[in-house]
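Subject: for your reference before the review

Hello V.,

The reviewers asked for a structural picture of the protein, and I figured it would be easier to keep everything in one thread rather than splitting it across files. Below is the amino acid sequence we used in the manuscript, unchanged from the supplementary table.
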Amino acid sequence: MHIASLYRRAGLERAYQLVVMEDENTGYQTLAPVSNMFNLIARFHVEGSDCFSYKEHMLKRQDFMWIGPEGVMCGTNGSQLWDAAFTTQAMLETGWQKRKRMRKRWLRHWNGLIRRR
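And here is what came back from the structure prediction:
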């Protein structure tokens, strides 16, 4: 077997171990909606749809994914703060806050984050 195949197999096995540990440590709720769906797919791929872990993921999926008036909705109660934090960080990284006309807007984002933390 080629060395790259051995590394790939070892990487996949380790990644799957991390998925299993996250599932067990969070009661299959995982850390976020996206990782929940990734874990659901990984567990289905390895263990099939009849396994306990897949069924638990399908139950927990209802906590953050539902059908609303606009269609399929996805989120958690705290995701708005994460979104605002990432947006504010992106603004900072690009130097947006240094532009005179944008500084006030950036400060409003920053102060909102400080109040919510």
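For the response letter, the relevant points are probably these. Residues 3-26 form the longest helix (24 residues). The mean pLDDT is 83.

Happy to draft the paragraph if you're swamped.

O.
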